[in-house]
Amino acid sequence: MFRGFVTNASNPKVLLFYIAFFPQFVSADSPHKTLAFLLLGAVFVTLGLINDCVIAWIAASAARAVRSRPAVRRWIDRVIGAGFIGLGVRLALTKR
User: Fold this and answer.
1) Number of alpha helices (DSSP H) and beta strands (DSSP E) in the chain
2) For residues 23 and 21, what is the distance between their CA atoms, to the nearest angstrom?
3) 6, 44, 95, 96: which is deepest, by most CB within 10 A?
4) Alpha-carbon distance 45 to 53, whole Å?
5) pLDDT tens, 60-87?
6) Furthest-apart CA pair in the chain: how many Å?
7) What is the rounded CA–CA span in Å between residue 83 and residue 26?
8) CB-CB contact of 11 with 4 (8 Å)
9) Using CA atoms, how far apart are residues 76 and 58, in angstroms rounded to an integer?
10) With a threshold of 0.85, does the pTM exceed it?
C-alpha cells in the first residue's frame, strides 16, 4: 500500500491533473481555499474508492460464475489462446 502511494505521489501526471483540474472548482475570492481543495480531494478519493469497489465486486461475481462452469472456462481459454495466436501471427508478419 505504501509503495502504491509513493508511486502515485511521485507521478508527475497526477500532480499535473490536480493542478490543472481542481482550481476550476474553487472560487478565486473564496476565504477557505485550502478547505475547498481538501474537500475536492476527499470527494475524488471517495468516488475512486467506490468505483474500485464496484469493479472488484463485478470481477468477483464473474470469477464465481466462471469457476462454477468448466465449459465456460474452456471457451474463455480458447478465445484468449486464439487471440494470442492471432497477435503472434500479426507480429510475425509485420515488416519494419
Assistant:
1) 4, 0
2) 6
3) 44
4) 12
5) 999 998 888 989 899 999 999 999 999 9
6) 63
7) 47
8) no
9) 17
10) no
pLDDT, greater one: 17 or 81: 81
Residues 6+ apart with CB under 8 A from 93: none
> In this structure, which amino acid lies at residue 10?
S
Cβ atoms of residues 21 and 37 within 8 Å: no
DSSP 3-state of 27: coil
* Portion of the chain with pLDDT greater than 90, in percent: 42
Q: What would the grid cell of residue 37 be?
A: 481543495
Confidence of residue 33 (pLDDT cuts 50, 70, 90): confident
Which stretches within 22-69 are classed as H helix? 33-67
- In three-state secondary structure terms, 26 is coil
CA distances from 36 to 19, 39, 70 (A): 14, 5, 52
